[in-house]
């Protein structure tokens, strides 16, 4: 067993950290306050080669392993959870799914531009009536000559308003049950496609979330990803990797909560001494540091299993479940440590607490994670 990162991984962590201190930290509060997608930041991420971090160089990426891409998501999320999540969805799910299941033509037309950071990708499965219950999806695609015609509405699509390429899940044969859903690559300019309502959110506010509307939307049959009927296992494979990305996002949030709590508790004087001298505060910080370590090891272990091409679904669900609940628990404690100042805008911990909540919900709720884990261990 080797707990050491490679020199390259250490160097990438250091480079991302420096990038974040220079480019992300200074704008993180403002893009949260204004719910703004920072196009200028994504241009810099693209110039730095971070947009296609786990994608091979021949397709425009950086050719890093998955664990390295997790380190990047963690460090970005330490400064801005929205930015870490946007990269995680774009590179860790959308680009990775086209890499795994796409034809050479699809990789050339869609993967390379995304990996080079020319535009973002989005993953569209959830619908107004289909959240945890993915079988309740109603969007359908019918073959008409050399095109598929897609009808339906997707909701809560991250990067929905900003993406250039969408992975869309639709029934091609509902009667076939779990073997009846297919995945389509839909370019933003596809006729019959438009972005619907934009959602205003409690946290993760600079990540853009919207409805997507498909009304007789036409895409070439060459835009079918993989085989007809393979959509559901593909979505689950996308989620497995994505859940490790969410765990890494939580590790970044937890690290930031710990950093802020240590700094503030040493600076804040009450009753003539720093509040960190009180055991009540010191123990909150001890628990935070311990859960951070546990979450980090679960996330890295799941990423390592993925890189070794070993089964990792259960471990990804465990990492996401543990890290997201720890992030929520300890960001609340971090606000407590900051007292009234932590409750006000301007305190980073206030944003961290709002950003943490969504990690218990998207890419499978905590209840869904417990279903995945118990389904495996009770088998
Ligand atoms: C900010 C944001 C970004 C998102 N990004 C994307 C995206 O990019 N792409 C995408 O496809 N989706 C996305 N989603 C959707 C997200 O994945 C869903 O919100 C999530 O899967 C839960 O679905 P739901 O909201 O419909 O809740 P529901 O499924 O209605 O669940 C409501 C509650 O009931 C519980 N519950 C449901 N069924 C069971 C059960 N059988 N047993 C026990 N408890 C149960 C849930 O755990 C939850 O607590 C996003 C959502 C948000 C808010």
In short:
The protein has 379 residues and is α+β, with helices and mostly antiparallel strands. Helices cover 53% and strands 16% of the residues.
Structure description:
The protein has 379 residues and is of the alpha+beta class. The chain has three domains: 7-120, Acyl-CoA dehydrogenase/oxidase, N-terminal domain (Butyryl-Coa Dehydrogenase, subunit A, domain 1, Orthogonal Bundle); 122-229, Butyryl-CoA Dehydrogenase, subunit A, domain 2 (Beta Barrel), CATH 2.40.110; 233-377, Butyryl-CoA Dehydrogenase, subunit A, domain 3 (Up-down Bundle), CATH 1.20.140.10. Helix content is 53%, strand content 16%. It has eleven helices and ten strands. It has helices spanning 7-33, 39-47, 66-79, 81-101, 104-115, 231-267, 279-307, 313-337, 339-342, 348-358, 366-377; strands at residues 120-124, 140-144, 147-158, 163-171, 181-187, 193-198, 209-220, 224-225, 269-270, 273-274. The strands form three sheets. Strands 1-4-5-8 form a four-stranded mixed β-sheet. A hairpin with a 2-residue loop joins strand 9 and strand 10 (273-274). Helix 8 packs antiparallel against helix 11 (366-377). The longest helix has 37 residues, at 231-267. The structure holds flavin-adenine dinucleotide. Flavin-adenine dinucleotide (FAD) binds next to strand 1, strand 3 and helix 11.
């Amino acid at each position: 067993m080797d707990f050491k990162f490679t020199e390259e991984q250490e160097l990438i962590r250091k480079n991302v950290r420096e990038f974040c201190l220079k480019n992300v930290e200074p704008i993180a509060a403002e893009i949260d306050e204004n719910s703004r997608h920072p196009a200028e930041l994504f241009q810099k991420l693209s110039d730095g080669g971070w947009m296609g971090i786990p994608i091979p160089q021949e397709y425009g990426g950086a050719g890093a392993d998955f664990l390295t891409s997790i380190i990047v998501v963690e460090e970005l999320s330490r400064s801005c959870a929205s930015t870490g999540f946007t990269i995680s969805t774009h590179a860790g799910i959308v680009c990775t799914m086209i890499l795994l299941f796409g034809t050479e033509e699809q990789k050339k037309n869609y993967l390379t531009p995304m990996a080079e950071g020319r535009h973002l990708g989005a993953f569209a499965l959830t619908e107004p009536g289909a959240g945890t219950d993915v079988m309740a999806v109603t969007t359908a695609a019918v073959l008409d000559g050399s095109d598929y015609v897609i009808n339906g509405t997707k909701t809560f699509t991250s990067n929905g308003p900003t993406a250039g390429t969408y992975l869309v899940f639709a029934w091609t044969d509902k009667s076939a049950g779990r073997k009846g859903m297919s995945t389509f690559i839909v370019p933003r300019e596809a006729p019959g496609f438009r972005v619907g309502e934009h959602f205003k959110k409690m946290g993760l506010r600079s990540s853009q979330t919207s409805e997507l509307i498909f009304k007789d939307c036409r895409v070439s049959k060459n835009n079918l990803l993989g085989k007809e009927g393979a959509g559901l296992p593909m979505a689950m494979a996308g989620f497995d990797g994505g859940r490790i990305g969410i765990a890494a996002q939580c590790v970044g949030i937890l690290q930031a909560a710990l950093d802020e709590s240590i700094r503030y508790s040493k600076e804040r004087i009450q009753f003539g001494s720093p509040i960190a001298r009180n055991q009540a505060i010191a123990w909150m910080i001890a628990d935070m540091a311990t859960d951070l370590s546990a979450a980090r090891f679960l996330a890295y272990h799941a990423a390592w299993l993925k890189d070794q091409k070993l089964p990792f679904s259960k471990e990804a669900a465990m990492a996401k479940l543990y890290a997201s609940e720890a992030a929520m628990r300890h960001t609340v404690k971090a606000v407590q440590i900051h007292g009234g100042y932590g409750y006000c805008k301007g305190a980073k911990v206030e944003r961290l607490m709002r950003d943490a909540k969504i990690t218990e919900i998207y890419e499978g709720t905590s209840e869904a994670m417990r279903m995945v884990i118990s389904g495996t261990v009770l088998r």
